[in-house]
Design goal:
With about 550 residues, this protein is α/β, with parallel strands linked by helices. The chain has helices at about 35-45, 55-60, 65-80, 95-110, 140-155, 170-175, 180-205, 230-235, 260-270, 290-300, 310-315, 320-340, 365-370, 400-410, 420-425, 470-485; strands at about 50-55, 80-90, 110-120, 155-160, 210-215, 240, 275-280, 305-310, 345, 350, 375-380, 385-390, 415, 445, 450-455, 490, 495-500, 505-510, 515-520, 530-535, 535-540. It has 16 helices and 21 strands.
Length: about 550
């Protein structure tokens, strides 16, 4: 549970760290001032929706009267927030008269308004995390239905914050699951509860009501706690994505790599399609640089809405440096949003089947992206891709050996982890594939079918991949990126690459040091770009 958010009741949970100066590298220099900057910022707000949440606690404490609501409105307008979510329940109810007053006030002021529910601290407690409920229990289910009937009366759209899961193993749960695994039982239970106790009652009370399930960022544990991203996405009206990666060295949040926000949004949007809404992140354990990196990743992933959790937190004086940096980045974010909409997304297909188990390679996709390998996440086997990345997750696909053999024999290029190579080495379908063996160093083997097979050592902690010598990393990266995206990149680790359509490239430096980057897509000087990226900055390059 280290990576699951624990801040939902306290607006003061988490600290903003490292109040560094705003970097001047990127599409829009920080030195721009006056009218030009204002026009660019207005353009940013036109193209992207910025939103925030008034938690139930915010409603009761910070929206008590017109003066409070006016104060919050001024803050939202300063940040460019044009949509607000007003929460009815988060361990306690917001007062109905305050919910109605806030809803009507912000609608009158021209803001889009939706509702929200956070399913914590009600009904029978789980035997696991005590903020989570036992959803096997009938009283818990009845209380859940009551909460959503109440909320659907007030709002035509309801977001569910990412606590709609269970880790309970009480006697009641054990009896109900019978001979099923906990994974099987929880996936079935949470789908049933969602359909019968959330969706049906909400639609019955308000036929116009759309209910959004927001998935957390811990994608390698979804199935263990009842998040069925295929079945629940089909059931719910819309989905939302948690892109809150926070400080990559913060162990209490799981030491998430910044690229995870991009990967999870792209992966879930591949499942959700047009149902996919925005990305949601917060301030916890964030320096201003890291906070805005969450915004960059959310926008590069294609999110049309940037959700800033939550008003009570982002309006704190201690978080002003984070908000100031975000405001300065809005022109660049607007341009990146335009670039991110260009299709096709090009790069190395990254195969993560739904409900797949990491088997020791937890969140490895995030680290691969941090090596500068542009990933195109997919929940289906990428049989037609020019290059593919495969990890232990792919073993969820029982036909993997045959599919991989056919893929390679079509001339496909693959980069696979050494753990997967070891598991597949004895498969008859792959007996004639050269280089399929575990290795302590990266190995590149030409296949008889004009492709390349790269075996990449994968040993926790995966930050050890950042220790690869740059020359070796360049060789590994370009072996799969060049055929897939038509570009080569020579750069150190922790510089990510994104390729949109035929012309647009974006590079981002996540490191604390400047990075020299060379991009090559043709011959001569016209087919290359050499740039130096300042720490924690983004640059767009057009080829």
């Amino acid at each position: 549970m280290a990576s699951t958010r624990r801040h939902f009741l306290s607006g003061a949970a988490g600290l903003a760290l490292g109040l560094g100066a705003i970097a001047t590298d990127g599409l829009v220099e920080a030195k721009e001032e006056g009218t030009a900057m204002r026009r660019a910022m207005d353009g940013a707000r036109d193209r992207l929706v910025y939103s925030t949440l008034f938690t139930a606690q915010n409603v009761n404490a910070l929206l008590k009267d017109d003066a409070d609501r006016q104060r919050a409105l001024a803050f939202c307008r300063d940040i460019g927030i044009s949509k607000v979510y007003i929460e009815s329940f988060r361990g306690e109810y917001a007062r109905e008269e305050l919910l109605v007053a806030a809803r009507d006030f912000y609608r009158k002021q021209g803001l889009a308004v939706s509702g929200c529910v956070t399913t914590v601290s009600f009904g029978k407690k789980s035997t696991g995390w005590n903020l989570i409920s036992c959803y096997t229990n009938g009283d818990t289910q009845a209380k859940l239905e009551e909460i959503f009937r109440f909320t659907a009366r007030l709002f035509d759209e309801i977001m569910i914050d990412d606590f709609l899961f269970t880790d309970c193993e009480c006697e009641e749960c054990q009896a109900a699951r019978g001979g099923r695994s906990w994974e099987e039982y929880r996936l079935a239970l949470m789908l049933d509860v969602s359909e019968k106790r959330i969706l049906e009652p909400s639609h019955q009370v308000n036929p116009r009501c759309k209910v959004i399930i927001k998935y957390p960022q811990w994608y390698d544990n979804f199935h263990n706690r009842g998040y069925g991203v295929d079945t629940e996405t089909a059931a719910f009206d819309r989905i939302w994505v948690g892109t809150e990666t926070r400080n990559p060295t913060a162990e209490r949040w799981g030491a998430k790599q910044q690229y995870e926000a991009y990967f999870i949004y792209r992966w879930l949007s591949g499942i959700g399609g047009p149902k996919t809404g925005g990305g949601w992140f917060d301030t916890y354990d964030c320096s201003p640089e890291v906070y805005v990196e969450q915004a960059y990743q959310t926008v590069l992933a294609g999110a049309p809405e940037v959700f800033l959790f939550n008003y009570g937190d982002i309006s704190r004086e201690a978080n002003r440096p984070l908000m100031d940096r975000l405001k300065a980045a809005q022109p660049q974010l607007a341009k990146l949003a335009q670039v991110a909409s260009i299709k096709p997304l090009r790069g190395v297909a990254a195969y993560k089947p739904v409900n797949s188990h990491p088997d020791g390679e937890d969140y490895i996709f995030d680290y691969i992206g941090m090596l500068g390998i542009p990933l195109v996440p997919t929940h289906r086997f990428p049989g037609q891709a020019k290059s593919a990345f495969l990890s232990m997750h792919a073993l969820k696909d029982r036909q993997l050996p045959a599919k991989l053999a056919a893929y390679l024999k079509r001339g496909g290029n693959a980069i696979i982890t050494s753990n997967l190579a070891k598991r597949l080495a004895s498969e008859p379908a792959l007996s004639d594939v050269p280089g399929l063996a575990a290795a302590d160093q990266p190995t590149l083997s030409s296949t008889p079918w004009a492709g390349t097979l790269v075996v990449l050592p994968a040993k926790p902690p995966f930050t050890s991949l950042y220790q690869l010598p740059q020359e070796e990393l360049n060789r590994v990266r370009n072996a799969v990126v060049l055929p897939a995206a038509g570009v080569q990149m020579n750069a150190p680790p922790r510089v990510a690459l994104y390729v949109f359509g035929n012309r647009e490239l974006v590079v981002e430096n996540f490191a604390d040091e400047p990075a020299d980057v060379e991009l090559r897509w043709g011959s001569g000087e016209q087919g290359r770009a050499r740039i130096t990226l300042a720490p924690h900055t983004v640059r767009q390059v057009r080829r």
